[in-house]
C-alpha cells in the first residue's frame, strides 16, 4: 500500500543558489535526494504555489515549498527468513557477504527470495529506507561484499560517495585465456541493441572503467584482481569479454568451457560443473557515511572458486614443462 507524503516548508535564506533537489534534501532529511528528484520530475513539488519540474532550478531563499507525493513502500515485498552472512553491522550500515544464486532486488522473474526480502526480515525498520537501503548491486551469481544503509541519511551519503567514486570495490575473477599483463579497460557500456537483458560496449554508452592485474597464471586461464572505477551493470563481465578474455562459467558472455590440451578428466569435470561467472567481490573500502571513518572489509573467495583455482593450479603443475610462455 502506498504511503502519502505531504510536506510544507520555507526555503532558508542560507540556501540561496542551491539546486532545488539539493535544498529539499536538506530541508527533508528523511527522504533521499534521488527520491526528491523523482518527485520534482513527476510534478509533485510546488514552489510558491506553482509546479516546478526542474531539479536543477536554483532557489533564492524564502520560497514556500509544498510536496504532495506517494511512496510505494518496500512493504509490498514480503520479509523472508533468508540467511545473511553479516560481515559488519552498526546502527547505520550492514556489510554482507552475498552467496551465489541470490538476486539482490526483486524484479522480473525474481519476485521474492532476494537480498531485499532477507533484509526486511532481518531488520524490519529498513522498510522505511528507499530500496531497503540497497545502494549497489551484485549480479545473481556474483558472490561477495556489498554495503546496505539502515537509515535514509546513511543511504544518501553512500549514494553520494559512489557517485564521487569514493567507495573502492575490488574483485577476484578467473578469465579464459593467457593474459600477459594487467591493464585498464576504459570503454562505455550500454544496453545491448538487440538482446535487452544483455549489456555491451557501445560508443554511446555510459562511461565505464575497470582496472585489472594478474594474480596467477594457469595454462589457458588467468586469475585476476580487478578494481571498479564505475559500477555499470555487468561491467567486469562485459569488459573482460570485450578484450577477448571472458570470465570462466559466464552463461551470458563467456561461451563454452575451454579445457587445455591433455587435461585430466577430473579437471575437465570441475571446469564443466562451474556453472556461474567466476567473479567474487573480495574487498570493500569506504568512509563511514555518518562518522566519516575509513573502513575496509575482505572476504575470501568461496569454496566453488577455491576448487576451481586448485584444479587449474594442479593442471598447470602437471603440464608445466609443456607451457611455451614460461
From TrEMBL:
Q: EC number(s) of the enzyme?
A: 5.4.99.-
Grouped into one coarse class, the protein's main location is cytoplasm
Tell me one Pfam family matched here. S4
Q: Spell out where the chain crosses the membrane.
A: none
Which InterPro entries would you find in this protein's record? PsdUridine_synth_cat_dom_sf (IPR020103), PsdUridine_synth_RluA-like_CS (IPR006224), PsdUridine_synth_RluC/D (IPR006225), PsdUridine_synth_RsuA/RluA (IPR006145), RluA_PseudoU_synthase (IPR050188), S4_RNA-bd (IPR002942), S4_RNA-bd_sf (IPR036986)
Q: Where in the cell is it found?
A: Cytoplasm
What Gene Ontology cellular component terms go with this record? Answer: cytoplasm
One GO molecular function term of this record is:
23S rRNA pseudouridine(1911/1915/1917) synthase activity
Q: Which GO biological process entries does UniProt record here? A: enzyme-directed rRNA pseudouridine synthesis
Known catalytic reactions: uridine(1911/1915/1917) in 23S rRNA = pseudouridine(1911/1915/1917) in 23S rRNA; a uridine in RNA = a pseudouridine in RNA
Q: Where is the RNA-binding S4 domain?
A: 18-83
Alphabetized CDD domains for the sequence: PseudoU_synth_RluA_like (cd02869), S4 (cd00165)
Q: Does the keyword Cell division apply?
A: no
State the active site.
139
Alphabetically ordered keywords of this record = Cytoplasm, Isomerase, RNA-binding, rRNA processing
Please state what class of enzyme this protein is.
isomerase
Q: Which PANTHER family does the entry mention?
A: MITOCHONDRIAL RNA PSEUDOURIDINE SYNTHASE, RIBOSOMAL LARGE SUBUNIT PSEUDOURIDINE SYNTHASE D
Protein purpose = Responsible for synthesis of pseudouridine from uracil.
UniProt family annotation: Belongs to the pseudouridine synthase RluA family.
What's the name of the protein? Pseudouridine synthase
